[in-house]
Amino acid sequence: MGRLVLAESADFVPPTVADFFLPPIFGGVTKPMVLVVFSVIIISVFFLVTSRNLKIVPGKLQFAVESVYDFGRNTIAREQIGSKDFKPFIPLIVSLFTFVLVNNLFGIIPVVQFPTMSHFGFPLAIAVFVVYPVYHFVGFKRHGFKGYMKNQLFPPGAPGPVYILLAPIEFLQKFLLNPLTLALRVFAAMFAGHLILLVFTLAGEFLLLHGPTLAKPVSVISWAFAIAMTFLEAFIQILQAYIFALLSATYIGMALAEDH
């Protein structure tokens, strides 16, 4: 990105991709690595503490954990996988939703302020090494190799000659592109959102400390936009966690379905 001259002698250097690659804290361990481990601890403690003394009339913490569980169980897993098959996948879907959610929300938490999923390797690892093998495994287990490949590559109802073109497209989508696009959605949203927050925050600081006198009041506007974008980013972070879990459940449901 270019440099924007906003002051008499100082240059404003906007944030770039380099700002997402933080130096190691110790050894080869970086902040995103620590945050991923920290997110697992947070989620584990949350579920263990809030569910250890369940009551008929729930308190605030029990209501919170039941709401999260019910959302993953009924709104995502049951709706997308189907009432006959969804129960074995509840732990996976709830775990995916909460894991992506917490790592996304790190981006707006003071001091932390880094969405782990803005590093493409993390969502890609989840998509390729967790979601991808699960939905193909259950598909092969349900239909057998031949039946599953036929179900995925040859949707019923299409004219015979069309399959010459349709089958390779379906193979490309189901076996190559699905995990990639699943990871790209959350990565792109977290990367772009964090970059926008950096632009408004750093621009406000620059205008206040280094800008000409007439430009200093504009720093307040820049910070106001940063605050507004933070609320919007929070919504997007929750939405992207939901979409990630939703698509994962959808892929499992499609693999199990009798029809394409």
Task: Give an overview of the whole structure.
By secondary structure, the chain is mainly α. The protein has one domain (4-256). Helix content is 69%, strand content 2%. The chain is built from 6 helices and 2 strands; from the N terminus they run ββαααααα. It has helices spanning 31-51, 60-81, 90-105, 121-153, 163-210, 218-256; strands at 4-5, 11-12. It has a two-stranded antiparallel ribbon with strand order 1-2. Helix 1 crosses helix 3. It is globular, with a radius of gyration of 23 Å. The protein starts with a strand and ends with a helix.
Key attributes of the depicted protein:
two-stranded antiparallel ribbon; 260 residues; 2 strands; mainly alpha
Helices, by number, come to 6
Number of strands: 2
Q: What structural class do helix, strand and pairing data support?
A: mainly alpha
- Work out the count of structural domains: 1
- Approximately what portion of the residues adopt beta-strand conformation? under 5%
Uncertain parts? 1-9
SSE topology string: EEHHHHHH
Q: What shape does the CA trace take? A: globular
- Tell me roughly what share of residues is in helical segments: 55-70%
Distance between the termini: 45 Å
Give me the side-by-side strand order of the main sheet: 1-2
Largest sheet: 2 strands, antiparallel
What is the residue-averaged pLDDT?
90
Radius of gyration from CA coordinates: 23 Å
